[in-house]
Fold this sequence. Notes:
By secondary structure, chain A is mainly alpha-helical.
Amino acid sequence: MSWILIAEQSLNGLQFGLMLFLLAAGLTLVFGIMDMINLAHGSLYMLGAFLASTFVQLTGSFTAGVLLAIPATAVLGMILEIFLLRTLYQRDHMAQVLATFSLILIINELTRLVWGSDAALPMPGSLSGPVELMPGLPYPAYRLVIIAVGLAVALLLFVLVTRTRVGMLVRAGASNREMALAMGVNIKLLFTLVFGAGAALCAVAGAMLAPLLAVQVGMGENILILAFVVIVIGGIGSIRGALVGALLVGMVDTIGRAFLPILFGLFFQPRVASAAGPAIASVSIYLLMAVVLYFKPQGLFPARG
Amino acid sequence: MKKNIFILAILALFPLAMLWSDQLFYVSFASRVMIYAIAATSLNLVLGYGGMISFGHAAFVGTGAYVAGILVAEGATSAWIAWPAGVAAAAAMAVSGLFALAIGAMSLRTRGVYFIMITLAFAQMMFYLVNSMKAYGGDEGLSLRQRPSLVFDLTNEVAFYYVVLFLLLLSIFLLYRLMGSRFGRVVIAIRENEARAEAVGFPVYRYKLACFVIAGAAAGLAGALLASHGKYVNPNVLHWVQSGTLMIMVILGGVGHLWGGVLGAAVLLGLEHLISDYPIGWLAQLAPNYQQHANLGVGLVMLAIVLFAPHGIAGLLERRKHASP
């Protein structure tokens, strides 16, 4: 177990965590401000990836394609909010779960009709090689770009939420919706904007992760659950919590997958270790969540005081 | 009452009619619907009567399926001739109930959205655990060589149908009696106002946990039946989408209605089957392979129900009854 492996896996964890953060940030705001369980958030992530694949093919440039996919997904998200999700805010959580679950089915099938079951989004050629971070530590250039994009978006979001007027309204909405409404905040417009922003973040994550993972129908379902784990750990409605939660989950998941089998190998027979290691690793983030909820039932950074 | 006897007669005669018209597939399909009806009814006890939005119910169905599957698989290879179905089902219920006790004991300390998410998290843990059980198929699932036998031969679809029908009716009857009992009244009181129930002096946590465990055991029974029905245990029965589907069945049918789970399972599975297996002429002309996209239709119908029939199908039927006395 050399330090190179540790450094490499930590960077992988950081990269995965940042992408999770992009998904979780939108989800936590929708959840925190509108008190709405949106299972279809993963579908927007999927749509972002598929749209990026089309735009990259049309324009022939990875950057242009991704940049086009982001506003396109945001518009789709806002259309969804205006015509459908808006009517669900007043309903109970069960109705929201049912409605957005049916949306997953609908969007999955529509995607399959338009694109087929999967699409290709190859990595830009100039980024496919490794970069020597330190002597003896090569790291894929594309993953570094993902980390940079993730950090930039996180910073942008932080400035937007803490330093601007819109951000203030968003925070007000998250901590006390009724009071914000009573103070004359145009909640309707704010909700639509937040939803659009959440969709845009989904598109960034979907498009950036697409060359590493497969662009396929159903890709949103599994990562959605991870995003929910993140926001529950972080505290619903808190951007800061989403960041901390996402990094925790990304690190624990990646590092667990890489090192638990090795660690188990030290103590158990190889046969047991090879079976138990990956199993415990995939369970580890849920264990983390259960532990956090046991000690802090409102998550690490509760948004509501 | 007359109507109930009529429905019962139809259900009892259904396999004979199918035998006569040589449509055995539908007997098997009806068994599957009824198994899901048991699972959905057990979730309805938690969700509808207890007011606990559990998003991990598939874990208990899956546990039951695996317990029964493993017993049968071990029984088939060892000196035992085969595990009698009754033992497998009882073991499935016991283990699922125990898991529900452990998971419920931890989850019920949280509430609201956090409860939804923690039950989901536990179910995901179980999902990954069974996926890594290499000895029992891992992510490929566990195939059973034969259906376990009860007193008579369960490989016969018609016999299996009657066993499932009996168990479904028994579960509905037990749910009915349970909800009429003191226990049921307290559980409903807790759903309506937990703080008040606590203030009156009921041990709220214990009542909720008991409710959760009963539902978990019943889900285990459904799982055991599911395993023997398909002679195969798919690890995907524990996937969160399956928990979601069970929830959909309950909400679709009617939350907190005695027949909600049954209606929801019948409508959802029936709809899926109808769209994917019955070509509609004009639609097929418009879109030749629309049947591969059955979920689109299912999703649209579900969306329509949540938007226009907030109390599910049972609520819809009830409203009609009240409207025309």
